[in-house]
Amino acid sequence: MNSPFFVTRDERVALARQRYFEEGILPTGVVSEAVFQSWTRCHRSSQKPQDKIEFQPVTLSRSQLALQKNRTLHGAWLDEMPALGSALGSAHCSAILTDASGVLIGATPSAHLTQGIIPVAHRIGVNLSEEHVGTSAPGIVARTGKQASVLGAEHYANAVNTMYCTAAPIRNIQGQLAGILDISSEGVPFKFDPASVVGLYAASIENRLLLAQSQDLLIVKFQFLPAIIETPMVAMLGFDLAGQLVWLNSVASNLLGMSVNPDEREACATEHIFDTHFGQLASLVGQGFQSQRLRNRLHVFVTCELRKHGLPVAQTSPPAAVTPATTPPAPQAPATHTLGTLSAPDLHQAYLPANSLRQADADLIRKCLAEHKGNVSQVAKRLKVSRGLIYRRLQELGIDPADYKK
Questions:
Q1: Helix (H), strand (E) at residue 292
Q2: Domain contains 5
Q3: Same domain, 340 and 369
């Protein structure tokens, strides 16, 4: 910095960092609170900005363990990776997925010959936590569980101050941090809003993960416009067959003002969220978009489905047109039961056309295999689940996809 003036933002950030560590002047208004707190943690751990960064992968055994423990998350990532790679196009960006601790378990291909850091740093097994590489977007998310950006000179280590990265959290069915999605650019600042892009794709991966982890649950998707329901912006809830809320995704958390962490919210039943009871919601399975009223008096459109082992249960009823909230369809229950008191087995019998959930799974998978001529990847995409889950169900059901390739 030979000039007495600091024109670029990177120069101002570098000056603010220098003054903070040498003179104790807080970088107020120059960097975000998340970046500042990360600098402080790195400084307290005796890291130095001039230290060399070694992007060494973790041990092979730990890398394999990370992939094994996060198999379902990795499957959700694989389903989104083609679309994410296509979206980034030639933007000189790379997308990566790490586990909750910051160990890299997935990356989009990098073909830019001018890059020197990304090809080394974005390898399976590399640990991108704050303790290993200083301030970075994945490292901050691993620490805070909140979306973060670290741009250029905001990195604590001088060796990586040409990197621009934005990361977002992905949560599991328990509301815990399951993984981190990051978009990085090397040497070139983002030409778009990376927070919006990474936020949407993280939400899409999170939704896939939540559905894949759902067993014997009623899934309710809702939003103010029907067109949004089949996008990453959909709000989703998972209810057990007693009508109790098991999980909600980040979008539903924001719309309802409820925490995704079950330890931070009170036990919640269907009636606490919707102006209806569980039986009426369950009767909407297979009925398409329906209008419902939330307890906060807002009207939304909902769709409902039953899932077993992460797969939607086959339905034979054609989707119905949108109906007013004041005239919900009557529950189709056996005459000997009241929907509000149905047990789990009774509920399955009331709403499933097949003789059993296992048979329903088999029928649905066979139908999709026939439609896609045994292509498991296409079947997984159609059902919005990971290929790994389809292969496991094929093995459990004794179905050979090769029989459908003829």
A1: strand 290-293
A2: no
A3: no
